[in-house]
């Protein structure tokens, strides 16, 4: 059958359309975050894999490296932290959950700074730290109270930090901070000295401060090794902010926003649209030159848990994109030691993956 000139035109149009779709799927161009990274995505596979379930570590949500030990924050269970000694194979349970002195009220995201594990219990306003070396030596957690924020909440009920991140001269926090605040700096007395404004997405117009605070409290921090800069990456929506730290003052130097999330005020409080929203940045770490963002981009109704992420995005401290990795094994949190990236996963089982970043 002869092909007319009109049919040839339609065939050409369809061919171009299909090639465009295939190209978009291959490069991730439909995702606004992935589309922002120039160049080819680098495919990498783990150089090693460790079953954590075999070690008795069942629900790792964060990971840190301390000498020959790994510290795992736990999502559930009767304690918040596992300290695993790779030399001896010993596992030390820490951050016990309860109501006694030295216990926390629920599973808490830990932070490792120097020889200490820091735990901020926002339900009791208590800020604890665990001495890692002493705990390993004695075979039980050595925990002490750093501070209590009770007096701060009493002065201003709108100021309720949920996540606290220790720095050399104070701390960074997100939470119910009042007003249109994303994150702030707290001095050694846990008083706010400066803050960075939240993301003013178009669909946030008319939202209550409580709803906006609820979006922004789920963020992840990383401070440069010299303590002069911080990146704060948002999880429920895709945005990140880089700020200079001058003493106890924050000055934002770069911000990038990609997409918002659906949230609304209801009589019972802020409500998120779990069917349409997708998770963005699940973790962040940094070194002297670069920032590393762990990106999910998944929606909640997908089969794989949204926390499990397969994209590692690298940029410099000026916000310039440098490299993008596609991880063959998904992870939900990470830490960096030189060019080695350690990541933990819970799907389909608890494990730790080791990647080499070239």
Distance between the termini: 55 Å
The largest sheet is: 5 strands, mixed
The shape is globular
Structural class: mainly beta
Please tally the β strands and state the result. Answer: 27
Helix % is 10-25%
Please give the order of strands in the largest beta sheet.
1-24-23-22-21
Mean pLDDT across residues: 90
Provide the gyration radius in Å.
22 Å
Can you count the helices? 5
Strand content: over 45%
Q: Segments where pLDDT lies below 50 for 5+ residues?
A: 8-28
Quick overview:
With 358 residues, the chain is mainly beta. It has five helices and 27 strands.
Give a structural overview.
By secondary structure, the protein is mainly beta. Helix content is 13%, strand content 46%. The protein is built from five helices and 27 strands. It has helices spanning 5-27, 32-35, 132-138, 150-155, 209-216, and strands spanning 42-44, 48-51, 60-66, 69-74, 79-85, 91-96, 111-113, 116-121, 126-131, 143-148, 160-166, 171-176, 181-186, 192-197, 219-223, 229-234, 238-246, 249-259, 263-266, 269-272, 281-286, 290-295, 309-316, 321-331, 333-337, 340-345, 351-356. The strands form seven sheets. The chain has a five-stranded mixed sheet with strand order 1-24-23-22-21, with no helix packed on it. Strands 2-27-26-25 form a four-stranded antiparallel sheet, with no helix packed on it. A four-stranded antiparallel sheet has the order 3-4-5-6, with helices on one face. The longest helix has 23 residues, at 5-27. It is globular.
């Amino acid at each position: 059958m002869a092909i007319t000139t009109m049919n040839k035109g339609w065939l050409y149009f369809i061919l171009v359309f299909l090639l465009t779709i295939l190209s978009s799927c291959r490069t991730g161009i439909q995702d606004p975050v992935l589309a922002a990274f120039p160049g080819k995505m680098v495919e990498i596979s783990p150089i090693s894999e460790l079953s954590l379930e075999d070690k008795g570590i069942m629900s790792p949500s964060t990971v840190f490296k301390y000498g020959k030990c790994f510290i795992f924050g736990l999502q559930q269970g009767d304690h918040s932290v596992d300290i695993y000694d790779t030399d001896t194979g010993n596992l030390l349970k820490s951050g016990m959950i309860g109501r006694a002195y030295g216990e926390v009220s629920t599973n808490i995201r830990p932070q490792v700074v120097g020889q200490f594990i820091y735990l901020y219990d926002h339900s009791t306003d208590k800020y604890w730290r665990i001495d890692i070396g002493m705990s390993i030596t004695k075979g039980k957690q050595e925990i002490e109270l750093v501070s209590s924020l009770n007096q701060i909440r009493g002065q201003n009920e709108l100021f309720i930090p949920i996540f606290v991140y220790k720095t050399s001269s104070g701390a960074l926090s997100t939470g119910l901070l009042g007003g249109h605040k994303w994150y702030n700096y707290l001095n050694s007395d846990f008083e706010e000295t400066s803050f960075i404004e939240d993301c003013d997405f178009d669909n946030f117009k008319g939202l209550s401060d409580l709803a906006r605070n609820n979006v922004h409290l789920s963020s992840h921090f990383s401070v440069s090794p010299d303590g002069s800069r911080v990146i704060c990456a948002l999880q429920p929506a895709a945005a990140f902010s880089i700020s200079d730290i001058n003493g106890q003052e924050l000055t934002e130097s770069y911000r990038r926003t990609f997409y918002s999330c659906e949230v609304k005020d209801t009589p019972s409080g802020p409500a998120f649209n779990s069917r349409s929203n997708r998770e963005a940045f699940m973790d962040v770490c940094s070194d002297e030159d670069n920032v590393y963002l762990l990106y999910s981009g998944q929606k909640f109704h997908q089969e794989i848990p949204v926390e499990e992420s397969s994209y590692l995005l690298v940029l410099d401290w000026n916000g310039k994109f440098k490299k993008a990795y596609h991880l063959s094994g998904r992870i939900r949190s990470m830490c960096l030691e030189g060019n080695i990236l350690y990541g933990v996963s819970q799907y389909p089982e608890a494990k730790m993956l080791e990647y080499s970043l070239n």
